[in-house]
Every structure is written in structure tokens, then in C-alpha cells.
Amino acid sequence: MASSSTHTITASSSTTISRNYDVFLSFTGCDTRKNFSDHHYTTLTAYGIRTFRDDEELEKGGDIASDLSKAMEESTIFLIVSSKNYAYSRWCLNELVKIIEVKNQKERMVLPIFYHVDPSDVRNQWGSFGEALAYHKIHANQEKKEMLQKWRTALKEGANLSGCHVDNQYETGVVKEIIDIIMRRLNNQPLSVGKNVVGIDVHLKKLKLLMNKELNKVSVVGIYGIGGAGKTTIAKAIYNEISHQYESSSFLRNIKERSKSDMLQLQQELLHGILKGKFVRTSNIDEGTIMIKRCLSSNRVLVVFDDVDELKQLEYLAEEKDWFESKSTIIITSRDKQVLTQYGATISYEVPKLNKEAAVELFSLWAFKQNLPEEVYKNLSYSIVDYANGVPLALKVLGASLFGKKLSEWESALCKLKTTPHMEIYNVLKISFNGLDDMEQWIFLDIACFFKGNDKYFVLRILGPYAEHGIPTLEDRCLVTISKNMLDMHDLIQQMGWEIIRRECPEDPGRSKLRDSDAYDVLTRNMGTSL
Predict the structure, then answer these.
(1) Which of 68, 255, 257, 347 has minimal Cβ neighbours within 10 Å of its Cβ?
(2) pLDDT exceeds cutoff 60 at 445
């Protein structure tokens, strides 16, 4: 904005602006008010994007400095139009300092536009920018010299950001390009990953490192693990982190359940995302499939399919990765590694269990609303953390269920957990068991009751030819693990298997498979079936 005022923009509680803005437009009036900046403002408002510019938004009689400060604090995106006379305006420079401050404090997006000026002139304060700062330096006292240094720093930091250079091209094309960037950012508001999330940065770092190797082709990223491991949370976090890098994006939740009866709605949600927020109504699934295929092939997109356990669930959404434009990314979360392999995942990421330190922190956040256990509950807390064995869902559910409870109630809960699983945890884990066929279920239960820790080939000989296919299926679905040919499974998964057996014949364990403690009851109390 063009102004000769020397006031620094500062926050004030006395303001006349009360609404939030999508975009804050910063420019010097003498260069661009009636052309480029006006084109931007008109187009932005026509798209329904709430945009701040001084002559439209500052109410007469208000405190201009505080009004501008509040508008910047409440804006999501900043457009800085650097033009020939921008640095001659002290007002614009003070505004720029505030914008950079808000960007760094609140992680807001700043998009510099270099309007008929060289970005290096702005960055290094050469040309008209050097001349303007030299002009401001004349007769500057110590306070103004300190402010001059802030201006230099802000100009350099702003010019180092990725932006648009307007020189000899048609301005309408540049305006359209910038509007597309803004629309993508506004349509990609962060997904909620929930509260008390621990260890997410570790997952993001590993995933981004893997994904950086697949820059020039369609990437299919598979995130897999047992129920409650945090697959959806990780997918949301990586989506929030990288979605702005794509032309458009979409996150489709709970594919497994919704694909049974809600496929048309899923298609419309996908189209809404990849068409940058436009609402599209299709009359039937076949029509939706054709439209999706056409749109995916012409846009560089990020799409997340959450909770897929069969390939056919993607048939009408993105049947093949060949539907996608190059440099697009598909992220699939699943409990079944084989689904990811069948779809052609180029990157597979198994969600590891939380380490002890992170597990204690997560449990404590839910049980005590703080990072560590209270001293009197410390030993019990560690016992429950050991029981959860690094599964975030279990730590969250158990911590929340014990919040505010007496010590005796904690002791009782821990005693119960040794024989009976918490039902919310059990129900989540059992979803994977329910997806097995009858023979696979029996093989799983045999391993849970008798063969955990045994050599795989020994177990294959005992269980017969069906196990040759069944055990790899259990491994793909994260129900068993195999290391150095030894079969293993998570303690909570094993307890889930025991509970399934117990529920088959709760009054007569002799009629079902017997785990160790039940076998003791049968042998010592003569509870088995008669021959």
C-alpha cells in the first residue's frame, strides 16, 4: 500500500475489523492499484475468496495501524506484489515486516509476486529497492536505522520464497495461475489428527524420505499395520504435510465400510477434491467412474484411500494407478499388505509399535493429562503400558478409561486385563480376524493358543497343507510376524484369539481349543468331553 506514514504496524485491542480473511493483498498503490492488484482483488472476490485490501476494508475513522495488524493476524494467505516503488513506501515495508512475523509464528502461506522487477533486486536490495532503502537511510536516527535493518531482512526473506515473476506474459494468465494456487491451499485445510498425538514426526520423516525417491512417476504409498496402530492418523498427517504440493487432493475415509453402500458418495467426494472444490453430481457409478478417470489423467493429484482391505473396493474410484497423471501420489492404508502389493505399491511402510518412552507419554496424556505418570500410579502405569505393547489405540483407550479413577480401581482393571481384553480394543483388533475365511481363522487360533514362538516349518508339518497358504495370509494381515522362521504375534492379538476361544464355550472350555490355563482346568477338574 502506498503511504508516507512512518508508523510501525502494531497490534491493538481497539479495532474496527472483526472478520477473518482468506487472502491479504499487499501492494503499493501508485504502481498496481488500478491494474494488476485490482485484477487480483476482483477475481478473488468473484471466486468467493474473502480478500483484504486497504481501500475496501478499512473503515473510516478507525485506527489504521491496528486495523491492518488485526487483518494480517486473521488472514490465511498473503500476496505481496513487489513493484518498482514498493520499497519507497514505509507503510508497505512495515506491513511486510508484520507479514513475515505472522508467517513464522503461525505458519501462514506467503506468495511473493515480482511485478516487472527482478527477484534478485528485491532479495539483494539492488536497483530501485536499493535506491529506496538508501533514501530511507538519509537523516535516519538510531531507531529508524534499526527499523531499516528489519526492512532489509523482511525483503530478503520474502524474496527467497517461491513465487511468481510477472514480466512480459499476459497478466490474466498469471492471475489465473495464482488463483489456482490459492484455491488449492484453501481447499486443503488441515485434517484433524486428534489430540495427544505422540511420535508422529518420526513417521513423517521416514515416509518423506521414502517418497522423495519417487519424484517423476506415479507413487503408490502403502501404510499397513495391525488395527489401532495409527495408520489413519499417519495418513492424515502426511496428507496435511504435502497436499499443497499438488494441483488438487482428496482424502477418502473408511473405504472398507463405505464402499458397501456409499460408492456414489465416495465418487462425488473424490471429484470434489480433484476438481478443486467444485461440486459435481453424477447420476450413477459408471458415469462417475468415467469422469474420475478423465480428471485423474489430466491433473497432478494426491489421493488417500483410507482403510482398504480388498482391491475391488477401489474398482470404481481408481482401479489402476495408470489412471493417474505422472508425479501424482496415491496413499493407501490397509491391514492387509497383500492388497498394497496387488495394487502395485512402490513404497510400503509398516507402522511400528511405539517405543517405551513414547508409549508412556501417550498413556499419561490420556490418564493424567500430563506427559508422565503421577508418582503413586507409576508402577501400575508401566504395567499397563507393557500390556499395551506399543499400540496407540490401546494406550489411548486404557488411559482414558482410568482417568480420575482411584488406585484400587486401577489395580482391579489391571487384574481384569490379564484374563479379559478391553472390549473396545478387542473389537478393533477382531476386524482383521473377521476378514479371514474359516480355515485361516482356525490356523490363526491354533497359533494363538499353541504355536506362538515355534518354528514355522514345524507348525506347517503339524497343521497340514492348508497352512502353507494360510500363514502367509496371516502375515500379510499383520496378525502374525515371522522372523528367522519363528512365528510370533503381538500380545494383544494373541489375547484377542484367546477371547474368541473363550466365547465359543465360556462354560465348557473342553469343547474348544485350549490355551495353557484352560488346559490345566480341563485336566485337573475333568472338564473335557467324554470319549
Answers:
(1) 257
(2) yes
Task: Compute the distance between CA of residue 301 and CA of residue 320 in angstroms, rounded to an integer.
Answer: 14
Instruction: Please answer whether residues 351 and 230 qualify as being in contact, where contact means their C-beta atoms are separated by less than 8 angstroms.
Output: yes
Residue found by looking up cell 487472502 in the block: 23
Helix, strand, coil percentages, rounded to 5, for the chain: 55, 10, 35
Determine the distance from the C-alpha atom of residue 485 to the mean position of all C-alpha atoms in its chain, rounded to a whole number: 36
Written as nine digits, the cell of 468 is 502353507
What is the rounded average pLDDT of the residues 457-486? Answer: 88
Joined together, the cell numbers standing for residue 315 give 474398482
Give residue 302's pLDDT band: very low, low, confident or very high (50, 70, 90): very high
Confidence of residue 220 (pLDDT cuts 50, 70, 90): very high
Number of C-beta neighbours around residue 273 at 10 A = 23
Helix (H) / strand (E) containing 399: helix 392-402
Task: Determine contact, residues 258/283, Cβ cutoff 8 Å.
Answer: no
Contact 173/228 with Cβ under 8 angstroms?
no
Which helix (H) or strand (E) segment holds residue 329: the answer is strand 329-334
For the cut 80, the answer to whether the pLDDT of residue 281 exceeds it is: no
Q: How much is the pLDDT for 375?
A: 93
- Look at residue 429 and give its three-state secondary structure: helix
pLDDT in tens, 55-86: 544 443 334 467 778 888 888 899 999 999 99
Dist CA 332 CA 317 (whole Å): 12
Distance, CA of 96 to CA of 116 (rounded, Å): 19
pLDDT-derived band at 434 (thresholds 50, 70, 90) equals: confident
- What pLDDT does 525 receive? 44
| Least confident among 189-193, 414-418, 504-508 | 504-508
Q: How far apart are CA 293 and CA 396, in angstroms?
A: 40
User: Which alpha helices (DSSP H) does 212-355 contain, by range?
Assistant: 231-242, 255-258, 263-274, 285-296, 315-318, 337-343
Q: Are 75 and 108 in contact (CB under 8 A)?
A: yes
Active-site residue identified among 73, 95, 269, 440: 95
pLDDT above 80: residue 7: no
DSSP 75: E
Beta strand pairing status for 481-483 and 486-488? antiparallel
Instruction: Name, in order, each residue with C-beta under 8 angstroms of 304's C-beta and a sequence gap of 6 or more.
Output: 235, 236, 239, 250, 251, 252, 330, 331, 332, 333
Strands 219-224 and 301-305: unpaired
Provide the grid cell at 514: 485350549
Q: Tell me the pLDDT of the chain averaged across its residues.
A: 84
Q: Give bridge partners of residue 350 from the DSSP assignment.
A: 224
